[in-house]
Amino acid sequence: MASETLQTLLPPPPAEEAPTTTVAALTDDTLRNILHRLAPADLLRAALACHRWRRAAARCVTGAPPPLLGYFFHPADTPPPVHLPFSASRGRLHPAAFSPVDASSSSPRLSLDYLGGTKGFIIYDVYLGLVLLLPTSLPSGTLPRILVLDPASRRRALLPQPPRDALPGDRWRGRRHIVGAAVLSRAHPSRLCFDAVCLTVDDKHPRAWVASYRDGECSWRALPRDTGVTVAFDPYWFEGRCVHAAGDIYWHICHSGRLLKLDPATLSFSYLLAPSELGDSNKKFRIGETPEDGRLGMATVEDQEMQFWVRGEASGSDNGWFLRKRMNMRRVLDTIPGLPRDMMSRIISIWLSDIDAGRTGKLFIKTQGYGRYSFHMDTGKLERLATEDGKEYGHPIYAYYVAWAPAFLAPELEGDDY
C-alpha cells in the first residue's frame, strides 16, 4: 500500500522522444525522387549544396537540354505613333528586368539588381547562363570595359580594357569602329570562367579581340584583321547586339541583304546572304533557329506577310534558303488596338525584332507606338508583351537558359560534403 502511494507521488517517467530523421539519413533513391520533383531553378540550387546532391541531381537531368527559365530585357517607354511628333524620350530604356517562363511560384525570378554596378550598362548578349553588358555609350577607338554576370550563382566580373601592348604598333586606333561584344565560350558551367569576343572594324576589315577570364584574372589577345572580309559600307550600320544561331555568331546589318558571321571555332569572319526575295527587296529580316531542331532560320513580317526560311543544302534554293512557312497576317494585325488600317502606315509602323531564341516557335514583333508583341507561327496567337507598370519589352528580348550539364552536376572530383 505504501509503495502504491509513493508511486502516485512520483512524477511520471519522461515519454520517449520520437526519433528524428535528418536530410543526411535519406537514401540515394529517396533523395533523387525528391529532387526529381523540383523546378529547374530549384534543382540547380540543390545541386550546389554538396557533392552528393550534385550526383543525385545529375541523374535527374542526364540527357535533358538546359531548361529555359525566362527572358532578360530592358523595359522601354512606348514611343508615339509615327504620325505624331517624336519626343526626346522615344524608346528610352530602363534597367534590365527578368520575366520568368510562367508566373507560377515554381518559376525563378532572377534579377541583376543585387549585383549593383549595372547602372550605365546595357545588355549586349545572354549566352551559356551569362549576361554580358557594355557601357551605354561606347568609346571611340578604345575598347570598352565588359561587365559579365552570372545570375544563377550571383557572380560578376568587370573585365579591364585590353592593355596597349595587346596590339603592338596599333595604327588603327583613330579609325576603329567598335561594333559590340559577345560571350564566346564557357570553360565550366559551375565557375565564372569564360571567353568573350569584342568585334571591331579596323580600316574596312573586321577584327576579333578575345578576352579570357580565369580565376579572377583576365587576359586579352588581338587577332589579325580578317582581310578576306571587307566592310565597304559605314560600320555604323552594324547592329551591335549579336545573335547566336546554329553554332555561329551573327551581326545584322541595317539596309543590307547579308549578315556578318563569326565562326567561334576558327574565329574567322564571312558574309551570309539572305534569300534574294528578302535581301534584294530590302525587307527587314532576322536570323535565328528553327524551334524543332535548332537549324538556321530566317524570318520577316514585312508587307503584312510572315515568311520563315530554313537553311538547307539542295538544288532549287534561294541563296541556300528554302521557304518553309508563309502566312497573311492582315487579320492578326487587325487585332492590335489603334493600329492604322492603311497599308503604308502599317509598313512603317511594324517590323520583326527577333526570332525567339528560346525556340518556342514565336516571333517578337515591334510596333511604333502600339506596343511589343509575340506571335506564334503555328497557332497564330498574338500576345502583348508589357510589364506590370505599363512599359513594353525593349529590344532585344534575350532567352535565358540555366547553364548546367551533367558534367557540372556530377563532377569527377569526389570528397566530403561542403
TrEMBL record:
It holds the Pfam family F-box-like. Residues 29-58 form the F-box domain. InterPro entries: F-box-like_dom_sf, F-box_dom. Gene3D superfamilies: 1.20.1280.50. This is F-box domain-containing protein. The gene is LOC127784242.
